[in-house]
Amino acid sequence: MKQVPNRIILPEEMMPKQWYNVRGDMPEQPEPLRNPGTGEIAKKEELYPVFCEELVEHEFTTERYIDIPEEVQELYKMYRPAPLHRAYRLEKELKTPAKIYYKYEGGNTSGSHKLNSAIPQVYYNKKQGITNLTTETGAGQWGTALAMACKFMNIGLTVYMVKISSIQKPYRKAVIETFGAKIIASPSDTTNAGRAMLAKDPDCMGSLGMAISEAVEDAVTSKNTRYTLGSVLNQVVLHQSVIGLEAKAQLEMVDEYPDIVIGCSGGGSNMGGLMSAFMQDKLTGKANPYFIAVEPSACPSLTRGVYAYDFCDTGKVTPLAKMYTLGCGFMPSSIHAGGLRYHGMSPILSKLYHDGFLDEARAVAQSKVFEAATLFAGAEGILPAPESSHAIRVAIDEAIKCRESGEAKTILFGLSGHGHFDMGSYISYQEGSMVDYEPTDEELQEGFAQLPKIDVQ
Amino acid sequence: MKQVPNRIILPEEMMPKQWYNVRGDMPEQPEPLRNPGTGEIAKKEELYPVFCEELVEHEFTTERYIDIPEEVQELYKMYRPAPLHRAYRLEKELKTPAKIYYKYEGGNTSGSHKLNSAIPQVYYNKKQGITNLTTETGAGQWGTALAMACKFMNIGLTVYMVKISSIQKPYRKAVIETFGAKIIASPSDTTNAGRAMLAKDPDCMGSLGMAISEAVEDAVTSKNTRYTLGSVLNQVVLHQSVIGLEAKAQLEMVDEYPDIVIGCSGGGSNMGGLMSAFMQDKLTGKANPYFIAVEPSACPSLTRGVYAYDFCDTGKVTPLAKMYTLGCGFMPSSIHAGGLRYHGMSPILSKLYHDGFLDEARAVAQSKVFEAATLFAGAEGILPAPESSHAIRVAIDEAIKCRESGEAKTILFGLSGHGHFDMGSYISYQEGSMVDYEPTDEELQEGFAQLPKIDVQ
Known about the structure:
Two copies of one chain form a homodimer.
Chain A: E1 7-8, E2 18-20, H1 44-47, H2 53-60, E3 65-67, H3 70-76, E4 84-86, H4 88-94, E5 99-104, H5 115-127, E6 132-137, H6 141-153, E7 156-162, H7 163-168, H8 170-178, E8 182-186, H9 192-200, H10 208-221, E9 225-227, H11 234-239, H12 241-253, E10 260-264, H13 269-283, E11 290-296, H14 301-304, E12 306-311, E13 320-325, H15 347-354, E14 360-364, H16 366-380, H17 386-405, E15 410-415, H18 423-430, H19 441-449
Helix pairs in contact in A: 3-5, 4-16, 5-6, 6-8, 12-13, 16-17
């Protein structure tokens, strides 16, 4: 048999021309969004001041396939198809009979898969005549991706960046500004929400919840402006399906199919995208891959959260979503994987997990994650993002199990991004100053007690 | 005619299996290295304490092709072949009829083409039974690449990092340490050279010349240890030929051939590699592409230097090489493209330039370089390294000339690396605090006056 190459490259003409919408094959739909005031099911029109109309459509649709507009396909071609790597050197290092594949989404300047949803979000807004977008950013990957997409399509962008992040991460800020976006440190004096916070505490260093409130307020009060979000939403899981569609086609090129599919999971954009095409096989009975979503033990929404209606933000301005949540007031400790510090989980992934299609969630401690990241970098030559390294940790653990059992399983994991802007956390690992943290049961109960009381079934 | 894809991907099986040695086709050879004490032509044996024997062979050989060892080919496959991009969006932005292609070497964690020579250098040392390597690093790209290669082949590495760089660039240091190399801030108390310097000035922040002296001393006085260098040397130009060999094969896949080939040029590793296969065509009369080497106006070795024998280092411990030089004592101003701050130029490139085969050298000011870098990032979605952006500047200038003349020339330039670790310089550009600098004629004359007086012809 011909040897599988180190990197399996999909020909450009084989790139997906449609997104796959897992809702089209789910036996039961995720619970709908609800109005936080009335508890009623939210109508599309209620979301129009916040999101452009076609994206609201993506939020609600159960169509199985959605055409990817040609302009979006063209922009995808700037950095896609993303390579699928066979991890020969990692397999050798682990002395495992397992075959390990990883889909690498870090080969673009935003450094992660976030661009896959940023491009269509900007495209549909532009098509509707929207001239400005707002968003918030903490770690900065979404902010960078959105700034790139806005620059490509020549549309304005204001990024509310958590003040402490804008101070601690001047390089991320500089990348975003290179792509022409305007950055406002949050809390700011440009919104009511920001001014109220500054009146209370002039030295406030901000939070993601605060930044969301400002970005949404800016969007709904400014002319021709809408808000965007890089995770959690159904539309994001839809757009990110290109990851899994490509990965499946690439594995087919070498006659492979995964026994296990592993992805890190914060709001669900990466895991939802990676598993898409394989989940379709599971939902339709064509195959039965085993899915593992990996989350930080410091922010364990799937493994220790409850499945309930909750706000999507800490500021409590968004509709309610039924999801696995730690409570919207949950403040994760300052673990370094900023992209995984979210109290909830995509409603789609939550439903799939609740119904047993997403087989397992596993929480891992960050020191174990960085141990895996360092091992991976040395073997494969790619310095992974802390978020992605959660998936690496579990892929390595599963490969070691195969060594012990002698099984030659095929493992696919998502390498969602590179760690070039995360060296501060590597330094803390190397210096031995990295602390593992898990919330206590009491802390979690406190969060659950704050959940909105309008959980209609 | 079929549309050229955005990224032209060479199939893995078409990767070069031999390096191309331009010396095999040069009508006159570059001048030989000379012993700095006697002025005599250096013998291979004189270099054995510093470099392993096969690499000394690469330094001297005029064989046209050298087989790439299979193990090196396998390691290349971790990140090669590197994509060739068609810059459709940049062309559109510039409204130029020119067809612009760029060979992107930044798709690996070292962030540049440096890994192409790091891997064979480590391989041949390991093969000879060498157990430890030394090198110096300033900007950090070479140090990272070598640390990766040493990790892949399990051989020890000590990197002497200019002390001020190790303080200013903790992230680069952390990347190198992630790959298991030992970093010593230079000047250090581990070598005679370092101790002497510290005795004179305990607060000395170091220089590249100082770090070279320490790395070489460490190599020649330690057991089973050799020194390595990421540019200037003939062996480096040889190994980097994979860039041009791949680029030529990729252009052939879409029936193209460059009218103009543009690369940035510090010590010559990138430009030498990019032009390799095309230079062969020129030397053998098969084609006549126009070559432009781009250098910073702050360090203009080709455009304003003299062609003379000089030391390769500021510490004056190396053999003498005949090259375009500003004098080994020349201290370039602190322009941000650290990789281009070298007083001399590869003897091979110097000879080709002197004899008119390398058609043109062009010096550009850094503010113009960052203007081009920002334009390029916005159009193509890749944040370029400051070094590579020198080539971008000239590629854009040539494309604008085509717009004015109406000529649809085919332009190939080398995008040697990404700028993820160079955001400090982007910040200085965005803040408007970037200063352009050119040495005065008097400063240059001062450097030339210091050239060694043993310039035998």
